[in-house]
Amino acid sequence: MGSAAAHAAAPSKQQQLMMMLAAAARQVGPQRLQLVPPPAKPDRRGDQAGSPATAARGSAPAVAPPRIKLRCVSEQPPEPDVMDAGSSAPSTPSDCSSMETKTTPSPRGPLPASAARQMPTPPPPFPAAPRVEVRRVWAHNFDAEARLIESLLPRFRYAAVDTEFPGTVYRPVGASYTLTPERRYDLLRLNVDVLDLIQVGLTLFDAGGRLPGPGGARHVWEFNFREFDVRRHRHAPESIAMLRAKGVDFDRTRRHGVGAAEFGPRLRKWLRAGLGRAGVVTFSGGYDLAYLVKVMFGPGYKMPRSAGQFEGVAKAALVRRPLFDVKEMARLCPRDLRGELESVAVKLNVGRAVGEAHQAGSDSLLTCHTFMKMRESYFDDDEKLARVAGFLTDITAC
């Protein structure tokens, strides 16, 4: 009785197999088990049903069933491999017992979300270059802009200047390069005495080339003057046509422009307050400087008879500021930088940041940038820069 009960309580081989399968299923979770029978071994004693060997086996006792192998088959795609951002080798995939199957992502595919979370935060993009605005000055806003300029002079010790005027009505006979310095100054003097300013461009900058303008845009100035009347005053027609094409409205300048009688005293005040203390920069600056001197001395002023006399007057009027003419600096460079402002700037790979050629504010800024690039490339110390100070086209240069 006890022996029979023991045999009844003991699980059969089939029940043991089912229990093993259930235990394995609990361990692998969502994966399923696939029964893989071992390959059948060929019967070397013959496969014919009626052979003596078969007949002999028919009465033989039953043999134990072969062992069944279990293989893990995942029903879910494996988690992608997570690589260190600085490593080129993925982690080695584990076997089934660890249940941590990992695969290497394709180098051409997008990074998985888990890898993106582990990637370092990229640096912020480089800030865009500051925008430059030309502050156009008329009679109605002249006082406010003049006070703003005066407040900036202690920090911005360089000044680049450009002027626009009605061309030239006295011209040389023959090529200008054949003229003597005395004859070139004579032509300048005759033209400045009979013509009036149309625009003055002013760019303030520091020793590093930085412009004023806290926060957003950087600023340069363009003063429009009312003295010139295109219907009554002498001018070069081609110069007036060019300025009109660049946006100059001669009716507006005549009605709303700044008076030279107001601008001259303010310019003298700026110079006393430090305008251009480190340097006044021009391009082919003989005419620019002559018109500024004429405005500072007021209506009725006549240019001195000789270039030497004018140099003395100009130095006194500018409170002996260092003068830099970029065109004359270009002549002293070891490479060919001849040409007008736009041409020299292109050769130095300097672009125009705002406006167009022959707009005084825009040209003063391009003069500033060209001077800075030339100084950096060819006049990179104070001694070299001092050698080119004081030369002005049509006045002191030969």
UniProtKB/TrEMBL annotation:
GO cellular component, one term: nucleus
GO molecular function: metal ion binding; poly(A)-specific ribonuclease activity; RNA binding
Record's catalysed reaction(s): Exonucleolytic cleavage of poly(A) to 5'-AMP
Keywords: Cytoplasm, Exonuclease, Hydrolase, Metal-binding, Nuclease, Nucleus, RNA-binding, Transcription, Transcription regulation
Keyword Transmembrane helix: no
Subcellular location: Cytoplasm; Nucleus
EC number(s) given by UniProt: 3.1.13.4
Sections of the chain in a coiled coil: none
Cofactors, names only: a divalent metal cation
InterPro entries in UniProt: CNOT7/CNOT8/Pop2, RNase_CAF1, RNaseH-like_sf, RNaseH_sf
Region annotation Disordered: where it falls in the sequence: 30-123
EC top class named in words: hydrolase
Pfam families, per the entry: CAF1
Biased composition (Low complexity): 87-98
Family in the record: Belongs to the CAF1 family.
Function per UniProt: Ubiquitous transcription factor required for a diverse set of processes. It is a component of the CCR4 complex involved in the control of gene expression.
PANTHER family referenced in this protein's UniProt entry, alphabetically: CCR4-NOT TRANSCRIPTION COMPLEX SUBUNIT (PTHR10797)
Subunit-structure text: Component of the CCR4-NOT complex, at least composed of CRR4 and CAF1 proteins.
Protein's name according to its UniProt entry: poly(A)-specific ribonuclease
